[in-house]
Amino acid sequence: MTLAFQPVADPAAPLARRNPVAKLAAALLFSLPLIATLDPLTPAIALAIELALVPLFGLRYATLARRAWPVLVASLGLLVTMVLFSANRSGTLLLDLGPFDVTTGVLMSALGLILRLFAVAVPGVLVFATTDPTDLADALVQNAKAPARFAIGALAAFRLLPLLGAEWQMLTLARRARGVDAGRNPVAALRLFVSTAFALLVGALRRGGRLAVAMDARGFDSGIPRTYARRQSFQRADAALVAGAVLLSALALTVTITLGLFRPII
Amino acid sequence: MSEVVLRGFGWRHAGRRAWAVRDVDLHIAHGERVLLLGPSGAGKSTLLAALAGLLPEDSGEAEGTIEIDGLDPRKARDRAGIVFQDPQTQLVMARSGDDVAFGLENRGVPPAQIWPRVSDALDRVGFPYPITRSTAALSGGEAQRLALAGVLALRPGVLLLDEPTANLDPAGATLVRESVSGLTDTTMILVEHRVAEALPLVERVVVLEPGGGIRADGTPEMVFAAYGDRLADEGVWVPGFTIPPLKSATAATPDLVRAEAVSVLNRLAPVTLGVGAGEVLAVTGPNGAGKSTLALIIGGLLAPSAGRVRGFGDAKPPHKWRAATLTGRIGSVFQNPEHQFVTSRVADELAVGPRRLGRSPTAVATTVSDLLERLRLTKLANANPYTLSGGEARRLSVATALATAPRLLVLDEPTFGQDRRTWIELVTLLATLRDDGHGIMAVTHDDDFVQTLADRTFPLGTAPFQDPLPHRRPRP
User: Fold this and answer.
1) The whole model's pTM is what?
2) Which parts pass through the membrane (chain A) (predicted)?
């Protein structure tokens, strides 16, 4: 079994091989300012920049689309929600559905939201698709001065995640073997789900406890300053990546403000 | 190499009335290799945890002294290295080399020394892969070798091994024992219940007395000549104590359940197999051959991706039966008993099945008390199933499957990791059930189990197999 977040990109691509902390910071600094405005233009510019940069991360567009499928699903959900509940039903009527009239106004607001969702999500997908979890933990400890107890501990816990899927299947089968099933009763199904989830949690906590003891037995709690077997360095190119992200984000906002389309969130 | 000295040592976990280990006087010299024995509950694991410095002062009450090279083990953590049972919960990193390096980083070893020490440790345990090998892709035996390398890289003076092969199949256990046998430059204390396999690794045997003190201490020959009978009775697998075979005297009746050319994509090649009433069928074979998958199919828990299963005169295959119907016909016992527990009391656990079948409250109560009695669980009726020892949990999981009186029992590695006493109880119980006309199918790696109990063996290979003689079995 492999981890769900194993990198899938060419690791030698110019931006893929940048320091993981730099990539993470660039993604956050680039996408956070976009939340400040409600217009559809700023996220559209941002998304265009992001998509143009994808090849520099060594990622194919098809891979990106596969990785981003939860975002695609969420954007469909947004569209449906907007059609059902949007207060703004101005503009030209496109589809007559009584209280759920689809108008250009509804579609514009939906488009704005969906673009924002993508503009914020794509940088995250890019970072995690091009970063090995071990490298990220190393960089967090070495370059961002995150506590090793937190970063390496989370990394170790992460390794146990794939076991949960197999464990869930065994627990479900074992319940059937005991004669416990829900049939068509939704209340029984919910109770069965809760009891299976509880058993999964108990098992996960026990495994986590055993892992923690094994880690401490190898000196994780020794209090001696840790040394690093794998060096992560923060170079000028990494600083440039972060600065570039801030500049591009400012550029997108400037264009919107210049065109008079800026609509602050507060 | 380190020296270990215990004087009147005892430890009681916080909140417990009984001492986990007590009155232990023991001197282990530099470079000695010791097998630590004792019935389950004698405190072997607690003693190793104390030596590894893993019992914080506030987690219990101590008595006497325990020293490694004259130091409190909590202050001499770098002198002891410990390997536990379960490889899955000892590996920390995603890549094998990084995992070995983890301990060295923790101890502040200069980076320039880390990688030479990593490859040295991997060579010492005979790890066959490059350092970039994913730890998720290792077999149990390989993962345990890696865990051992992670400990050896720290160059401990005393190596503590707490049942390092108990979670492994025979091939994996052999890998680990081969690695351990090559380590001659460290003091070693080994806890292992499969004594015959462990003896070539040690020169001295120490037997802990449950309730306190040391019962025996000396060379293996001396200890087993004087205490072998008693240790065997208490559940230790003393070499040379065999159990007479318990084979069926009558022929099996036609199949209770029969699978025709069943297969599961990537997990099981097509198999044709039937299990009759009044026989014990052992399914054997290497890891990855699909033994557990086959048990799930016969047990009506998994749908085969091709082929068909029929049984009990039902037109529908077992995996389509309602759970209550299934549990009245086929009882499944999983490899990990804890997967099967659905309540928080042992007695309730036994009542679940019969209640689902709509039995009357008096009938349920009778079934529960009979089974508690039969499987020596009466004293534990009010205990939480998750707090039971390995042997108790195994007995309970078998009892839950028997509670609905199914004609067919399907067991996955029923004797795995059990002490000799529980093993004999299980084998005797299964023989009785078979002689009463139940059909039993057991997936197993345990040669003793096959020799003693199986009326028929079905070796599962990685290639497609056919059941050669569905209704006949060799006589012993």
Assistant:
1) 0.85
2) 21-38, 44-62, 69-87, 107-129, 150-168, 188-205, 239-262
